[in-house]
């Protein structure tokens, strides 16, 4: 392998691509409201693990791509993703030292912030957007999935020596 797959950049971008595909993948109506925010979970992991390489600009670019793929107003998800990743990068040294259960609670809080920012911007831009408590259901599902996402991505990072 050439320089460990360019220091693992290909691996990181592949995981972000898979997170994006999971984010837009159609689901049955019964579980659609519980869909974890896959892209945000993967982005949170890489911002915690490598904040010097994958942070706000990466989140902004992925948010614009997600807005385009979902057909949403351009910039809403990029603003929300960038804000959450900014907070993660600020707290990355602390977050790394927390036990997984505390990390998962904070990840759920980050996902709530993400959805509140999206709601707020849609309310301001579109107007008359009704508040729905179901927008916090992805935070609950992501709370439990964070353990698996963290474990899988950490093992990939170690195996491919991503730096």
UniProtKB/TrEMBL annotation:
Which residue windows are transmembrane per the record?
Answer: 6-26, 38-62, 74-92, 104-123, 135-153
- Annotated localization: Cell inner membrane; Cell membrane
An annotated GO cellular component: plasma membrane
Which UniProt key words apply to this protein?
Answer: Cell inner membrane, Cell membrane, Cell shape, Membrane, Transmembrane, Transmembrane helix
What topology in the membrane does the UniProt record assign? Answer: Multi-pass membrane protein
Tree of life domain: Bacteria
What InterPro entries does its record include?
A: Cell_shape_determining_MreD, MreD_proteobac
- Any Gene Ontology biological process: regulation of cell shape
What does it do?
Answer: Involved in formation of the rod shape of the cell. May also contribute to regulation of formation of penicillin-binding proteins.
Family, per entry: Belongs to the MreD family.
Q: What is this protein called?
A: Rod shape-determining protein MreD
In its UniProt entry, the species of origin is given as Shewanella livingstonensis
Q: What is the lineage of its organism?
A: Bacteria, Pseudomonadati, Pseudomonadota, Gammaproteobacteria, Alteromonadales
State the encoding gene: mreD
